[in-house]
Amino acid sequence: MTTASGERLAARLAELAPGLPVATGPGATGPYAYDASNYRVLPRAVAFPRSAADVRAVLRACREAGVAVTARGGGTSMAGNAVGPGVVLDLSRYMNRILDIDPVARTARVEAGVVLDALRDAAGEHGLTFGPDPSSHSRCTLGGMIGNDACGNRSVRYGRTSGHIEALEIVTAAGLHAVADHAGLRAVDPADAERVARLEADVRRLIAADLAPIRTELGRIPRQVSGYPLHRLLPENGFDMARALVGTEGTCAVVTAATVRLVATAPASALLALGYDDVVDAAEDVPEILLCSPTAVEGMDEAIVATMRARRGPGSVTGLPDGRAWLYVELDGDDEATVTARAAELLDALKARGRTTGGRVVASAAERRSLWRVREDGAGLAARLVEGGESWPGWEDAAVAPGDLAAYLRDFRALLAAHALTGVLYGHFGAGCVHVRIDFDLATEAGRTATRRFLGAAAELVVAHGGTLSGEHGDGRARGELLEVMYGPRLIRAFAAFKAVFDPEGLLNPGVVVAPARLDADLALHEIRPVATEFTFPHDEDGFAGAVRRCVGVGRCRGHAGGVMCPSYRATGEERHSTRGRARLLQEMLRGGAVQDGWRATEVRDALDLCLSCKACAADCPVGVDMATYKAEFLHRHYRRRLRPRSHYALGWLPLTSALCAYAARPLNALLRGPLRKPLARLGGVTTRRTIPALASRRALREELRSAQSGEPARAVLFVDSFTRAFRPQVAGAAMRVLHAAGTPCTARSGLCCGLTWVSTGQLSMARRVMARTVAHLDDGGDMPVVVAEPSCAATLKRDLPELLGSEAARRVAARVHTLTGALTDLAAPEWTPPPLPDHVVLQTHCHEYATFTGRRPRDLLRRLGAGRIDEAEGCCGLAGNFGFEEQHYGTSMAVAGLALAPRLGDIPDGGTTVVVADGFSCVTQIGHLAGDRGVRALHLAELLDPAADRPGETP
């Protein structure tokens, strides 16, 4: 597979479909070599079609060249059905339009790349939704759900995707554009009518030839997804071609659009959380629960909950009863009282059965969201557990009849023990579908042999229980080879004949279902090559290699709502600018695969270029990927002993230069606002479209600190960071007064630096020196809390400092660090009463505070202190330290701001009493850039709470 061959194919595509975006080369194809499975298959090229005509053009070019085609949506497949060796069709980039919603007929017509949440949001305006709801709903596409016949958390009520399909618009390998519906196939182009009719006739003949195995072996249990659903084509099922193609994993045709059936949203629902000693005990209660017609019965074990709490804080999981395994049971109905009463009755009945360790009806909406978040992040949380072990899919989707679930789980756990393996269990217990990630050793030959042996035994076990290899993820590369354990030879031949009718040359998603690849071929995991790094990566056994391997492809970073990750993907929509895309390229770099130049690789540099280093992924990513740290390490190695971008010097050394400039702040401010402003900005690689913040004098800081001294013995240290010292000393004074008023008088320490700017620009040797000096001054044998007004500096001291220095002294200092929000939450006297707070606050939480100080959110503090309405701009401000000041990043910076912050600011009425609060200096600067001309000024929390201000938010 060469770049040249990909470029020749791209040239042919340019002839057939002018304007069709096609990407080749390692930087473009590397991220698409992976999905969320164990496999790596590098494509020749990636195409981004805008229409069915573009898809036909790609298929024509690939047919001429004998090149395979793999259709892809969100790339969240756990079975390896979204990777392929030829051209990958990314349908999510442009073919993501909702074409029509008919609320009367309760149908929607959507393109294949539409994300499920987008459809649900649009349908929700009419009181409707799409029933199946996989945990990946924020990024999975309808095309991918159709490919796998996905189900989701509420499949007890809504079943599989196939049950909600009215028609599919498809393109075959031969280029036929057709519609598959409940009665067969019809051509979109009348010129194709005869060929489409022949194709349908061929399918009818092969079904008629194999009626017996199709009737006896398929459609036995609700979650039987393995193989092709040929029983949909039986005479008694009306030759339903639309639903027969659902679950064929892109091996028979490319789905370009679909007409789907919508369901009404229930007016009320209740969530029942049940605790158990064991997942088998939980499974034993499932048949009783199903008698109550729940919408969901979801299970998980204690490892997932422990990992969530360790990663995001104890408050990230609330509302669970005691236990080591849990069931979520959701009921719905017409009114809240009736549904809650039904849930209480079910709880009483289950307690009487004696298996539960506890249970409760979860009344709080916030608690319900928290609990569902744990379940939805199960695949990622189970991949890298709190104790550091890794687990993998491969046998993550087996299903049995719900009544046999407990017996199957009992035997399955015995099988794990016999093979010396450990599995983390969760899944759709009400539908008999168990997701499990297992600690396979896929990096060594011996481990791969043992894995293969186990999978064969697991297939035999689930078949013995009358179950299926796959319950919603499809067979893919992971289980296609095992289909012969589940089905007889005649049905296996019928699957092959069905594919041959649609794809006689085998171009579509080869190696999947029919003529399957070996399940241990093309595994992504490889022998680890240790690399020397500056960061210690204490939570990853293999250092940097283990850290980047955290990404297992679940793709939460591709979501467009909820959380903060990933701002650059939300702004660009490009895979390589997602956390996942970057992590995959770093993996390619370490394995020496598509990326050949190691730390000098320009493909990796370019992918990391739009990373804002916001650190949101460290909190939002279920496996804890920290791309900001990986970027800092890469930049350090990439530019080692080389000339750096000018902005790395101008902005990276800002703490030092701003300290020097403080001696002559007034004339320098005049210079930076005069005619030399733009030339100086260009010289430093800084955009001319922003105003350089005014420098504060040394005298201004001295006066602020002197006037704020309380004279009482200090109980905390106020760390005056470089940004506060250089640009807003009034925040230091306000912070001291607020802390004193709250019962925590402090002493100020200035002249020290956290090293943030050197870290974010990858100048880690200098960062280490700066940090070492800071630790030497702060690690003085005391244990007073260290309060930092600037959240990004607090985060650097809390996390980067110990991980870069790796010393006990650094860890001692880090343990003492608080943001002002954290200090007021944890250290304030109970009797403290702050000044009256405004009725309306627009809040921008700094990304580093969001990511590093989980459970200590400004929003929660303001609410507790009595603020009125709080509108939080949930997302990155877009400036992100040096990022938004760099000339080449200005456009992306503004696009990111437009996702959340700018709309919130735009909603502020002129002349109103709304107060904007932002603790981060970057956030304040961005707010001034966006809305300063309207008189909008952001206040630090300290300024808002300053008891010396004439009113809340006014500086004395």
Notes on the protein architecture:
The protein is an alpha/beta fold and about 950 residues long. It has 44 helices and 26 strands. The longest helix has 20 residues.
Write the SSE topology.
Elements: H1 3-16, E1 22-23, H2 26-29, E2 45-47, H3 52-65, E3 69-72, E4 87-90, E5 98-102, E6 107-111, H4 116-124, E7 128-129, H5 142-148, H6 155-158, E8 165-171, E9 177-181, E10 184-187, H7 193-209, H8 211-217, H9 241-245, E11 254-261, E12 263-264, E13 268-276, H10 279-284, H11 286-290, E14 296-301, H12 302-312, E15 325-333, H13 336-353, E16 356-362, H14 365-376, H15 378-383, H16 405-418, E17 423-428, E18 433-438, H17 445-464, H18 476-479, H19 483-486, H20 489-502, H21 543-548, H22 567-572, H23 579-591, H24 602-609, H25 616-620, H26 627-638, H27 646-650, H28 654-661, H29 665-672, H30 677-683, H31 698-708, E19 716-719, H32 722-727, H33 729-741, E20 746-749, H34 756-760, H35 764-778, E21 786-788, H36 791-805, H37 808-815, E22 817-819, H38 820-826, E23 840-844, H39 847-852, H40 858-865, E24 869-872, H41 890-897, H42 901-906, E25 915-918, H43 921-931, E26 938-939, H44 941-945
Parallel strand pairs: 2-4, 3-4, 19-20, 19-21, 21-22, 23-24, 23-25, 25-26
Antiparallel strand pairs: 1-2, 5-6, 6-11, 7-12, 8-9, 8-11, 9-10, 13-15, 13-16, 14-15, 14-17, 17-18
Give the helix tally. 44
Helix/strand/pairing class, anyone? alpha/beta
| Rg, nearest Å | 29 Å
> How many strands, what sense, and barrel or not for the largest sheet?
6 strands, antiparallel
Beta strand %: 5-15%
**How many angstroms separate the termini?**
68 Å
User: What's the count of strands?
Assistant: 26
Integer average pLDDT: 95
- Shape summary: globular
How would you write the strand order of the largest sheet? 5-6-11-8-9-10
Percent helix range = 40-55%
